[in-house]
C-alpha cells in the first residue's frame, strides 16, 4: 500500500537521488548542482519557500518511490496563489501503480483546500509518456505560450548593477530606474 505524505528532513537524500535520476532521464545528467545541504535548507530552513511530498511504497527495497517538489506562484489576473510543480518523479520500477496520479491529486487537493487558482508545470516536448499521462488527468497544454528563462551568465550580466551606478545588489530592489 502506498502513502503520500509531506517530506521530512530524513527524506532529503532520497529526494536528491531521484532529482539526479530525473536529470538522467531528461538527458541532462551533469546539470544538477543541488546538494543535500542546499535542498535541506530550502525545504526545512527558517522560512521554507519550497515544498515536497513523497510516496512511501515498499518496492525493490526502496521506501520512497516518488516525489513532487513544488512552490507557490501568483496569478495577477486571478488575484490568487497557485502551485508550480517543479518536479514530479516516480522510480521506473514503481511506475504504473498510480503514484504519480496520487501525488498530483495531493497537490490539487492542497490547491482546492487553500483556495489556490491552479496547479501548473512544464513538460519537455519530447516526453510523450508524461504528456499522455497529464492529458489523461484532464490537464492541458497552454496554447500560444512559451517558457522563457534567464539564467547563468545572461542572468548575471542582466542583473548586475549598471556600470558607474554605484549601486550594490540588495535582497530586494526598492525601485529600479528606467
From TrEMBL:
PROSITE patterns in alphabetical order: GNAT
Looking up InterPro entries in the UniProt record yields: Acyl_CoA_acyltransferase, Diverse_Substrate_AcTransf, GNAT_dom
Q: Which residues form a coiled coil?
A: none
| Gene Ontology terms, MF aspect | N-acetyltransferase activity
Give start and end of each N-acetyltransferase domain. 2-161
The entry's keywords = Acyltransferase, Transferase
| Family listed | Belongs to the acetyltransferase family.
Which protein, by its recorded name, is this? N-acetyltransferase domain-containing protein
Q: Which organism is it from?
A: Arthrobacter alpinus
